[in-house]
Design a protein that fits this description.
Blueprint: H1 4-23, E1 29-46, E2 52-71, E3 75-93, E4 96-115, E5 118-137, E6 141-160, E7 163-172, E8 179-190
Antiparallel strand pairs: 1-2, 1-8, 2-3, 3-4, 4-5, 5-6, 6-7, 7-8
Length: 191
């Protein structure tokens, strides 16, 4: 049978590394950051009277963001805003090249849970988006559309003092696109 003194010593030995890791976790506050990754753009680009061109491509994307997080024991709540550039995607269709440039400004509400330096979170918000579509070749035209729609996402983070590393998936319910989403990795600095 293990004595209470031995049990206490065993618990201290096994919990010491987690205490040290939790000290590497920064308190909440204002933060700024940037991320890069891949976007998936699935959109119908208008053609001539005969129909549309279905563009389903991925592109290199990036975003800059900033916000504020209130760090409670085990829970985080905050808000975040930023600019996202989904990149440019294009495809060939029988003598016609169709392309789209997508970007937007977003605002998120964030809620998450953390244990020491590791955490997961969800995001719910809106994006003011802009889609610029072009066709060249047999059909030359350009259409610019914009609007505001809902967005949501999930993410995971790792904190090392005031530096936060993150991986995220965001989906934007843009009314003019079948799919507009982004998978990214990045970093932020908490002040």
């Amino acid at each position: 049978m293990i004595s209470s003194r031995s049990l206490t010593l065993i618990l201290l030995v096994f919990s010491a590394p987690f205490y040290h890791l939790s000290c590497a976790h920064a308190d909440g506050g204002w933060y700024l950051g940037a991320s890069t990754g891949r976007s998936l753009i699935e959109i119908e680009v208008p053609g001539n009277a005969s129909g549309v061109f279905g563009l389903d491509e991925s592109a290199t994307a990036w975003k800059g963001f900033g916000g504020y997080v209130l760090d409670l024991p085990l829970l985080d709540f905050g808000f975040e805003g930023g600019y996202v550039d989904f990149g440019s995607a294009s495809a060939q269709f029988q003598g016609v090249e169709a392309s789209v440039d997508a970007s937007g400004v977003n605002l998120w509400g964030i809620a998450g849970a953390d244990l020491g330096p590791l955490g997961v979170y969800g995001k719910l918000g809106a994006i003011a988006w802009s889609l610029d579509t072009r066709t060249t070749g047999l059909i030359d035209q350009q259409l610019d559309k914009s609007g505001t729609d809902m967005a949501y996402g999930i993410g995971a983070k790792f904190m090392l003092w005031s530096l936060e590393f993150r991986a995220e998936y965001e989906r934007y319910d843009v009314s003019r696109a079948e799919n507009l989403s982004m998978l990214s990795v990045g970093a932020s600095w908490v002040f």
